[in-house]
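Side project, low priority. Logging it here so it doesn't get lost.
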Amino acid sequence: MSLQPKTGYTFDDYLAAERAALETRHEYVAGDVFAMTGATENHNIIVANIITALTLQMRGRPCRVYAKDMKVRVDASDAGTYPDVTAICGERGFYDGRRDVPLNPSVIIEVLSDSTEAYDRGDKFALYRALPSLREYLLVSQHVMRAELYVHQADGHWMLGDHGVADNAVPLASIDCSLSLADVYDKVEFSARISD
C-alpha cells in the first residue's frame, strides 16, 4: 500500500474509478485512496494454493472463495479493501448489482508482505473487525511456514492461534474447512528475506 493517499473521495467515487481502472488497484479508507503494490512469487503461490484448497473443500456446498481482485466493503469503517482471499458460506450480500464488492465475508486471509505487514496486523485488522459477519482472520507468512488465526469469540474478543511447522492444518470452523500447511506452502521456496 502506498503511504501517500489521495484524499476527498466518497466510496462511490472511489468505486467508479476503481472499476474503470485497467491495471492498478487501490484501497479506500474514510475518503482516502491508497495505491496497492505488487506481490512476490511466494505471495502469489500461497494465495493460489489457499484458493485451490478451499475451493476443493467447498464443492457442493453454498460457499464461495474469492481471489484478491474482489473488493470487500466495510460500511462501519467506511472502507473498501482487497483481501488476498475472502470466503463466504451461505447467503452473499453485495454492495450493488455488479456483485464485485461483498459485504459479509466469514473469513479473510492476508498473506503478509514486508511492505504491508504492520497495516495487515494493525489498522486493516481494526477495519475488518467492524464486519459483523467476520468470524476468522488468517495471516500467512511468506518467509516461514507460519499462520496466525484470529477467531472471533462469543464475548466479542478475538483469540489468536499460532500455527507452524508442527501443525498439520489450520482449522477454519466458520466455513467448515481446514488448510494444510503443506498444501499452503507447496512450491514455495524460502530464501533470504527481500522487501516486497
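Brief comment: DSSP finds five helices and twelve strands in the chain.
Revisit when time allows.
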